Amino acid sequence: MRRWFTCYENRLLFVLSLSFGFVFFDRNAMSFLAPFVAQDLALSNTQIGLLVSALSLTWALSGYVLGAQSDRSGRRKPYLLAAVMIFSACSFVSGLAGSFFMLLAARLLMGLAEGPILPISQTLMAMNSTPARRGRNMGIMQNFGSNLLGSCIAPLVLVAIASHYHWRLAFFVAGVPGLIAACLIWKYVKEPKATVTTTPTPRARTTTSLLDLLRYRNVWLSMVIACFYVAWMVLGWAFMPVYYLNERHFSSTDMGILMSVLGASATLCSFIVPALSDRWGRRSVVVVFSLIGALTPLAALYFQGPFWALCGLLFVTWSASGVAPIFMATIPSETVPTHCIAACVGLVMGMGEVVGGVLSPVIGGWLADAHGLSAPLLLQAACAGVVALLGLGLHETAPLRVGRATALAGKGATVP
Fold first, then answer.
1. CATH topology classification for 207-396
2. What is the mean pLDDT for each group of 10 consecutive residues in the chain (416 residues)?
3. Domain ranges of the chain
4. Which of 23, 27, 53, 237 is least enclosed by beta carbons within 10 angstroms?
5. 371 vs 3, 12, 125, 242, 266, CA distance in Å?
6. Dihedral angle at the C-alpha atoms of 21, 208, 66, 182, nearest 10 degrees?
7. For the chain, what is the largest distance between any 2 Cα atoms, rounded to a whole number of angstroms?
8. Are residues 208 and 343 in contact, defined by beta-carbon separation less than 8 angstroms?
């Protein structure tokens, strides 16, 4: 382990994945602690929803704005370090909140601080990864720690603290890991000296304006894909538990197991699916696994076999979660010049957050009220199908595939 850690590429991957896991641990705290907070502060369901969506909105805006600012300055580490420290402080402020508006202000500021963390982290990872490992590294960085800590461990730890002690203490505890992450970033992350590690493009520019980024086909396609992909994920997390309880009549324990299977699948596939994209190509993996993801809500709706078999089906089909870092970070980083990566990743991520994360639950809830709880799950399946269809339009960027295609074209062979 010590020998593995001496390689800077591995050390950076460990620190950034762990740090982003702490970010999601903190970000998801509001959702897990909402019942306790609502009872103590007399909050309505609408106010709870505003607390969640407010963070998503400022997260999306700051991801692009501050990511672009770090591009212009040419510095990554100071922005990343400041963002991690501020969002940790906001968690402590959340624990001190005595009213809805104080809590809302803390969550808005937290979103502003957390927004640039993913774009800057993925920029660092792209600039310091060997080409053959870039997809895998960026997948692990974005999905492994966030799913392990934010989806699997956070609900167990935070709910237990809130149940046995108080929700305010849970927010205080949620802020501590961020301070640990800041120490690790300060000690182990270096300001990158590399200039270009991505696949060269004939349209490389020296600007990070929005219009210039949108000139790249992969960028605007990834933005549209993000909208439908985030909707696929959010609809699943929001409506599958209710469907299991109210329509399939599973016990709350069984429902919890079924949802935890998704977190376990996402953790494992965080490095398997992106690694496959290094070998098979980014486009083919996005298309194939998105089609597999369309089977997740269909299994929840129609599979009537043994419980263990349903768990297995959900585990396999939720492997589509591993697609996120491919179109959200890896493909953009291999499409635009290095000095535009953070802004580009922030733009793609922000579009997915605003459209998919904010609008899809509203549309899904309206469909559920009008047509039953199966409607949002059918919408979820349709979103995965749209992602697969859009994925067909992506230009391939995987270095191994691009290099092979270039070599074959040079020999006058037909490129598959």
1. Growth Hormone; Chain: A; (1.20.1250)
2. 74 90 80 76 72 76 81 84 88 87 88 86 84 80 80 76 86 87 90 53 51 87 94 84 84 78 84 88 94 96 94 95 89 84 83 81 82 91 96 89 59 48
3. 7-189, 207-396
4. 237
5. 57, 48, 45, 15, 30
6. 50
7. 71
8. yes
